[in-house]
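Quick note —
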Amino acid sequence: MSADLIHALEQLEKEKGIDKEILIEAIEAALISAYKRNFGSSQNVRVSIDRESGEFKVYALKKVTDTPKNIHSDISIEEAKKVNADLEEDDVVEVEVTPRKFGRIAAQTAKQVVVQRIREAERGIIFDEFSNKEGEIVTGIVQRTERKNVIIDLGKAEAILAPSEQVPGEEYKFNDRIKTYIIEVKKTTKGPQIMVSRTHPGLIKRLFELEVPEIYEGIVELKSISREPGSRTKIAVYSRDDNVDPVGACVGQKGTRVQAIVDELRGEKIDIINWSSDPKEYISSSLSPAKVIRVDVDEEEKSAKVTVPDFQLSLAIGKEGQNARLAAKLTGWKIDIKSESQLRADIEQKFFNINNSVYDEDFKEDDEEENFEENFEEISEVESKEDVDSEKDTEENFEEDNMDENIV
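Predicted structure written out below.
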């Protein structure tokens, strides 16, 4: 059994890539537990397996002392000298205590350890393989559905497509072959848990890298992505080579490249636009397929006011505001869209308000002048009347004085 064990471990090392030494050390540790469990021993022991013959032996670790108190943990100096003449008090000596019927227990324990280690090693290999693929696309086959989670067979492992990562309206049937995006790989007691997504924007990026060689080679750069899964996606692309049209490269001859991606996404619409460092140009392109007349930007607020023809207002906004919403996500700018007639009406209203304001000020000044003139006239009339009355009183007094003189 011992020779067969070593041979089996060597075969596992070649086939599974598991180091033989690691397996032997694991078997030794398991045999210590098996010895204590089966032979009711609480003493310190060590199990040694010969790397060539495969023979194993159990050694008890005992302390050398003049007065041994525990036969399981202590040994007298006389007994110790029989093992090694150089031993002295307080040294530790190993005494072989291999049981006669330990072979069957050892074989069974070794089998369990090897199987467990193989399982752990395979899980470790799978974890290492897929953890390096986080952020990558994998192709799998739909196996089953468990509590709304779709289980996908990736060959060496199974992946979980959670409800939150599923595209609304998509159906995943048994044996369907689909591409998914790995978002996370976690270690669990049951092995690596691989979480995948069909809604992540990274799926779009990786699909374009697969279909467009210019993106994979770095000639064309995918600058930004905004996506509403199952409905519409906008991407902004930029070419590092002036001789390469980034939009044309992504679309492909007769639209073959982008159509392959649309088919994989089961009909999701994709808008491809040119990225620009000029905010006005970039925002104008982001509202494609609508045509933009004018863009006014506020750098501090990072907001833009966009004017479009009247007949294209609904196209620019999109169904339930989708086109405008995706454009805002793509550019990172807050976008306010108005039609030509709305802009004209706003301008007219603005001038009307300004004119009214000026008119009101003029009217106020005129009113004040009129009030002043009226008050001035009233004051003048009062003053004139007072002067007349005063003159009249003077004349009357003069007449009375003359009459008195005449009487005298």
